[in-house]
Amino acid sequence: MISLNYGNVNSIVIGEENGLNIEQEFLEYKETISNIIADLNQRKDKLGQWLQWMNLGYSEETVWYVKEFASMVKDRFDNVLILGIGGSALGGIAVTEALLKPYWNLLTKEQRNGYPRIFFLDNIDPDSMTGLLQILDLNKTLVNVITKSGSTAETMSQYMIIKDLMEKELGDDYRKNIVATTDQRIGVLRQLADQEGYKTFVVPDDVGGRFSVFSAVGLLPFALVGLDIDRIMSGIKDMDLALKNTDIFENIAAQGALINYLMDTKKGKNISVMMPYSSRLKYISDWFVQLWAESLGKEVNKNGEKVNVGPTPVKALGATDQHSQIQLYNEGPNNKLITFIRVNNFDNSLEIPRIFEYTGIGYLGGKTVNDLINAEADSTRVALADYNRPTMTINIDRVDEYNIAQLLYMLEVQTAIAGELYNIDTFNQPGVEQAKNYTYALMGRAGYEDSAQNLKSKMITA
Ligand code: PA5
Q1: Ligand 1: distance of its center to the CA of 46 in Å?
Q2: Beta strand pairing status for 336-345 and 391-398?
Q3: Looking at residues 169-180, what average pLDDT do you find?
Q4: Across residues 348-352, what is the average pLDDT?
Q5: DSSP-assigned beta bridge partners for residue 20
Q6: Pocket of ligand 1 contains residue 93 by CB under 6 Å
Q7: pTM of the model
Q8: Tell me, what's the pLDDT at 459?
Q9: Is 85's C-beta closer than 6 angstroms to any atom of ligand 1?
Q10: Does the active-site annotation cover 436?
Q11: Which of 110, 305, 306, 323 is catalytic?
């Protein structure tokens, strides 16, 4: 199991002004946290609560369908191309970057054990899209278009471009190269996919984009590139069981949520930095940033009062960003809580040769890069504590399916508990919808004419 070390948020270590008396805070919030956890678990099966993501670890049916489809198409395609944005892409990117062999798309088919390369188009940059389309053989490419709403302009414009190209190149057969993951009933993509006869997978009801990584949104791409999704499911289930414990002293998601919440509301640490010491985990921070920002950044609380809450998440990578951000974190404003992710065992052990022994770098010889990266994680944590800066560390035994699933699920539950502490709706995103609607208006979508008029006048004055 992954673990959480929060010693360096303690006032004994970093002083009263910046630190928390953890024992006392846990005791004070014991009942509140217990009620929150019990309530989440009780509401998770009810419709309209947006808590169905808590059941995804048990969805054997989805696992069966994605595995069956993946095995059917394995030999037909050299490439998988995912079209999606936000919650429809970030989980896939984070998990495949963490779990596939590094530089996967540069490996030969044999080195990939026969599985395809994987590409994510999660932006609408005309240059990068054109560049990618120039190198992909569409005949050998399976396109998975993922959008829960079925109408997101970025994803649907990508889909329209690629569908058109594919039809021109492949004739009627293009349909076999497209698979859609979308809502079961509603949305433009659902309608088109049914008309066109694509294979489809479902984004379940009551699962928001940023909580959808363990639905077919993530599981299908994972199965297509040969990740062990049974181990992913085991990781979620074991973590879910552990997080059902209503005792804050035993529940790491509750501990992470409460510490983040108190650091923000009591100690002014309104910036939350996620800093894994592992290149493979770099995109876990991107995924977390969206989860934390869209879930907790809200204008009104559940009572309808204007509160404008939400800690600002920031991504960093150890050791790289020690040479970029740590100067600020040590000596700049003391307004951050940094969460490190530390990997105990890497897949490879890389020894530094004993050369240049009588120079200033001779001390490195005979050590491993593994020793070096973890020494840097430990020394950065201690240095930050010397400056009275709060940090926590999530420890992972190794980067594999089981542990990554545990980590992501734990962070989802942490976010849900934090949302309850802030007393906001964790699962809506009115701020995202507002910008989406303005885009529809600007691009001339029917029904958005008034909004377009209003927007144009604002753009002139801006
Ligand atoms: O988390 C969310 O709800 C959002 O980030 C969505 O995932 C994102 O806006 C994409 O939406 P859709 O999946 O409907 O295309």
Answers
A1: 22
A2: parallel
A3: 96
A4: 98
A5: 10
A6: no
A7: 0.96
A8: 76
A9: yes
A10: yes
A11: 323
Question: Alpha carbon 350 to chain centroid distance?
Answer: 29
Give nearest CA residue, ligand 1 atom 9. Answer: 86
pLDDT per position as a tens digit, 302-320: 999 999 999 999 999 999 9
Point out the catalytic residue in the list 25, 294, 401, 412.
Answer: 294
- Quick check: helix, strand or coil at residue 308? strand
Block residue for tokens 């044999």 = 110
State whether the beta carbon of 182 lies less than 6 angstroms from ligand 1: no
Q: State how far the Cα of 261 lies from the Cα of 244, in Å rounded to an integer.
A: 20
CB within 8 A of 244, min separation 6: which ones?
Answer: 37, 41
What is the rounded CA–CA span in Å between residue 62 and residue 222? 13
d(C-alpha 103, C-alpha 158), whole Å: 25
Kindly tell me if the per-residue pLDDT of 285 is higher than 70: yes
Q: Report whether 31 contacts 182 (CB < 8 A).
A: no
pLDDT digits (tens, 9 = 90+) for 2-39: 999 999 999 999 999 999 999 999 999 999 999 999 99
Q: Ligand 1 in contact with 210 (CB < 6 A)? A: yes
Q: Atom 3 (ligand 1): residue with closest C-alpha?
A: 209
Q: pLDDT, tens digit, for every residue of 287-301?
A: 999 999 999 999 999
Residue nearest to atom 8 of ligand 1 (CA): 86
Best mutation site among 50, 52, 88 for ligand 1, i.e. most ligand atoms within 8 A of its Cβ?
Answer: 88
Range 99-108 burial, b when 16+ CB lie within 10 A, else e: bbeeebeeee
Question: Is 295 close to ligand 1, i.e. is its CB under 6 Å away?
Answer: no
Residue 448 has pLDDT above 90, yes or no: no
Those residues with Cβ within 8 angstroms of residue 164's Cβ, 6 or more apart along the chain or in another chain: none
Three-state secondary structure string covering the chain: CCEEECHHHEHHHHCCCCCECHHHHHHHHHHHHHHHHHHHHHHCCCCCCCCHHHHHHHCHHHHHHHHHHHHHHCCCCCEEEEECCHHHCHHHHHHHHHHCCCCHHHCCCCCCCCCCEEEEECCCCHHHHHHHHHHCCHHHEEEEEEECCCCCHHHHHHHHHHHHHHHHHHHHHHHHHEEEEEECCCCHHHHHHHHHCCEEEEECCCCCHHHCCCCHHHHHHHHHCCCCHHHHHHHHHHHHHHHCCCCHHHCHHHHHHHHHHHHHHHHCCCEEEEEECCHHHHHHHHHHHHHHHHHHCEEECCCCCEEEECCEEEECCCCHHHHCCHHHHHHCCCCEEEEEEEEEECCCCCECCCCCCCCCCHHHCCCEHHHHHHHHHHHHHHHHHHCCCCEEEEEEEECCHHHHHHHHHHHHHHHHHHHHHHCCCCCCCHHHHHHHHHHHHHCCCCCCHHHHHHHHHHHHHC
Rounded CA gap, 194 and 225, in Å?
Answer: 26
